[in-house]
Amino acid sequence: MATSVDAPASPAAVDPLDVSRPELYRDDCWQEPFARLRAEAPVYRCEHSDFGPYWSVSTYRPIVEIESLPDIYSSEAGGIVLADVEPEADVKLPMFIAMDRPKHTGQRRTVAPAFTPSEMARMSADIRRRTAEILDELPVGKGFDWVDRVSIELTTQMLAILFDFPWEDRRKLTFWSDWAGDIELVKTPELRQQRLEHMFECGAYFQNLWNRKIGKEPTPDLISMMIHSNAMSHMDQYEFLGNLILLIVGGNDTTRNSMSAYAWGLNQYPDERAKLEANPDLIPNAVSEIIRWQTPLAHMRRTATQDAELMGQHIREGDKLALWYISANRDESVFGPDADRIVVDRPNARRHLSFGHGIHRCVGARLAELQVGILLEEMAKRRLRVNVTGEPTRVAACFVHGYRSLPAELSRY
């Protein structure tokens, strides 16, 4: 199937089906090449990209197959993003999402208790109170940046609570998350070094928090859970930092960009917004639909540990595969011909792959859904509507699929 599309004429030519190009996401024009990939070559070998050769996996079924075979398609062998770690230039920061079994299992189990249904119930009143406070401080009929005032503030507050992080310094979490999640930064030695310095600054800050909790009684925050677990209590500094970065980026970027997609996306589909405003009972389903439509992390990478067959294509041991969740969530064979639209009552919205699938499915998925759902409920309670007043500034990268800013104003309906 990969040979059914035209390859670039020479290594210097841009492959129109290289969907790792940052401008596709900066300019929000990624939909067309992915539609072509899904139709013509759902498992496509891209020979020339800024990240080297890789397989693009763009439809729902093969992504689920890969995620269901973690011993054949490894998260640990090459990491979880298209960018390769260069041993001489980078420091490896192990994290459990980029580990294979059995180590992945033990470390995931350590943090999982922070995201159980009982913990969600315990935290929901506080999330609702903080959401209400932020919304009540927003001007009605006056412009502001939705990303900064709502999306970033709500998710950063939540992260500060999860880590028992000093409240006055909570925006440091946003800063570190932005540096950690930007895949484009690996392309120059200078930016790699700058990024590493910020990551070590993050690690030093958290090491102080860790040291203060050693020997203390367990508390319901992630650092205390790590300290009091067999799987994570003896991590070295790099593994500690790697797992911190995973939890910061996972907790920040996914929820933050789904909250921004709520404002931007429903503005693009006013008929669906009106349907939701008229029927708040649709909010739980609309949350799943918004997360599907946005897909806050565009891809995850896997590396083949052995030769394998995938939809008629021969995958060789060591090959890099990009699992494009952003495309699978628009797969017409699963979500129908209107998959590019937001449909707040879409019957199968919860089938989305934004949280991944299998053993690496996002451990904080419930918390992300809870935060976005409470935001929509509190907006509905106040009969507030977000009116977008200009184009968003988007993240120019193929990993975090998100928004830097979104000019908006509120009105009442």
TrEMBL record:
<dbReference type="GO" id="GO:0016705">
    <property type="term" value="F:oxidoreductase activity, acting on paired donors, with incorporation or reduction of molecular oxygen"/>
</dbReference>
<keyword id="KW-0560">Oxidoreductase</keyword>
<dbReference type="GO" id="GO:0020037">
    <property type="term" value="F:heme binding"/>
</dbReference>
<comment type="similarity">
    <text>Belongs to the cytochrome P450 family.</text>
</comment>
<dbReference type="GO" id="GO:0005506">
    <property type="term" value="F:iron ion binding"/>
</dbReference>
<dbReference type="Pfam" id="PF00067">
    <property type="entry name" value="p450"/>
</dbReference>
<dbReference type="InterPro" id="IPR036396">
    <property type="entry name" value="Cyt_P450_sf"/>
</dbReference>
<dbReference type="InterPro" id="IPR017972">
    <property type="entry name" value="Cyt_P450_CS"/>
</dbReference>
<dbReference type="InterPro" id="IPR002397">
    <property type="entry name" value="Cyt_P450_B"/>
</dbReference>
<dbReference type="GO" id="GO:0004497">
    <property type="term" value="F:monooxygenase activity"/>
</dbReference>
<keyword id="KW-0479">Metal-binding</keyword>
<protein>
    <submittedName>
        <fullName>Cytochrome P450</fullName>
    </submittedName>
</protein>
<dbReference type="InterPro" id="IPR001128">
    <property type="entry name" value="Cyt_P450"/>
</dbReference>
<keyword id="KW-0503">Monooxygenase</keyword>
<keyword id="KW-0349">Heme</keyword>
<keyword id="KW-0408">Iron</keyword>
